[in-house]
Amino acid sequence: MALFHTFSSVSLSLLILLISYSSVHAAPALDPNDPEWELQKEEDNIQVYFKDVDGSDIQAFMGRMEMNASVSSIVKVMKSEETCVDWVEGCINAQDLDGGTFKQSFQYGVNHLPWPADDRDYVNEALTVHDKETGGIVISLKAVEGHVPVEDYVRLTKMNIRYYLSPISENKTKVIWVQHTEPGGYIPDWLVNMLLIDIPFYSLTRLEAVAQKPEYESAEFLYGEDGHAEGFK
Hints:
It contains five helices and twelve strands. The protein is of the alpha+beta class. The chain has one domain (about 10-30, about 35-220): Alpha-D-Glucose-1,6-Bisphosphate, Chain A, domain 4 (2-Layer Sandwich). Strands 1, 2, 3, 4, 5, 6, 7, 8, 9 and 10 form a ten-stranded mixed β-sheet that branches. The chain has a two-stranded antiparallel sheet with strand order 11-12.
C-alpha cells in the first residue's frame, strides 16, 4: 500500500472476476499476465518486475512470492490498520476511516520517503473480491479525493494497487502485488528506482513474517449465505 517467468498459476477464474470488476477500478497496466514485465530482482523466493506505463514517467512494479501463510491470515494482516507499519515499506501511519465493510473500505495513510523527498499521504478505497470456487482473493486499492483534508504532506492522487492471493495449500499462498503510483511533488529519479525495488521486496518479506504470528495465523474467514467471505470469525 503505502508507494514475474509465467503467470499461469494465477487462476483463470480470478482473472475473469477481475475483468468484471474493472469498471470500478480500471487499470490495464496492472495486468500480471502482460508480457512486458521485466524481471529486476530475484532473491529469497521473491521476484520484482518493472514495466512502463503509457502516459507516465513512473514505471509500475510487480512483486511475487509464495508465502508460508494462509490466504485468510494474509488478508487479516492487510486489513488490520495497526500492521501497516510492521510490513509496508515506509508506512508510518494508517487509519481506517468510518463506514467501511470487509468488501469496501477507506483508509488514510502516511508514507515516509528518504531525504530530499517529502513524506506522502493518501486516502485509498479498498475493494475486496472473494472467489468461492478457488478460495482466492483480489484486493484492489485506488487513491480517492476527499475524506481527509490536505495539510502537512504531499497528497498522492494517482495510486493503483492490486493484490492477488491464490491458495496453493491450506497454509501456503501465492501472492502477486502490482502497483503504479504517481508520487507527485519533487522526487529524484534515483529514489523512484530504489522505491520500486524496495517497496515490494522488503514489504513481502515482512508480510509473511507478520502473517505467521499467532494472532493472524489462526485467522478464519466468516462466510455469508452466498458463500463469499465477508469478515473474520
